[in-house]
Amino acid sequence: MAHQTEAKENRQESIPEAGVLGRLVTRLGDVFAIAIVLSACALIFEVVMRYGFNAPTKWAHETVIFLTAITFVFGGLYAAATNKHIRVVLIYDLLTPQLRRAFNIGISLVCATATALFSWAAWLVVQRAVWTPAGEFRLETSGSAWDPPTPGLMKLFLMGILILMSVQFAVLAVNYLRRK
């Protein structure tokens, strides 16, 4: 019981300005934490198979790369929802509450615009990674011996997260604007 209480105390919560989307993002954070644990297990399995049994896997390396990559990409959205992104606190901490509010609105609008533009760029990449020149659906694969579709999936995931980040920053801007 004490362990569950500690886990709840250590869990990051979204800031109120992040709204419903922020709360959903922080709840999803546990899924991506599990992905990191699974990638560690895959690495351990690969080491045992390679050096213990001289039978390396075809899938472990690419699986670990994919799991850690989606976790790091999701981390940007998580940081926005929990207000844990990088900030130049030397300047920010010197601001009055009214100026901080103005900075929060401005930063959120700039970030919403930037992530919207990155979403568009990601869409251009996704078009090539998901459809053939003839227009047939086919996810880009790695080209390795295992040849999973993880590059295509990663590009789709990145675009989706960028879209959600753009929405999250817009929600933050609106809610900072509403706050007195």
From TrEMBL:
Please list the GO terms describing molecular function: transmembrane transporter activity
- Write out the transmembrane intervals: 31-53, 59-81, 102-123, 156-177
Q: Where in the cell is it found?
A: Cell inner membrane
> What sequence ranges are listed for the domain Tripartite ATP-independent periplasmic transporters DctQ component?
41-171
Q: Which UniProt keywords apply?
A: Cell inner membrane, Cell membrane, Membrane, Transmembrane, Transmembrane helix, Transport
> Which Gene Ontology terms of cellular component type are present?
plasma membrane
Q: Which Pfam families match?
A: DctQ
Note the InterPro entries from the entry: DctQ, TRAP_DctQ
Q: How does it sit in the membrane?
A: Multi-pass membrane protein
Highest taxon of the source? Bacteria
User: How is this protein organized at the quaternary level?
Assistant: The complex comprises the extracytoplasmic solute receptor protein and the two transmembrane proteins.
* Entries under PANTHER family matching the protein: 2,3-DIKETO-L-GULONATE TRAP TRANSPORTER SMALL PERMEASE PROTEIN YIAM
Task of the protein: Part of the tripartite ATP-independent periplasmic (TRAP) transport system.
Entry's family note: Belongs to the TRAP transporter small permease family.
Q: What is this protein called?
A: TRAP transporter small permease protein
Origin organism is Ruegeria profundi
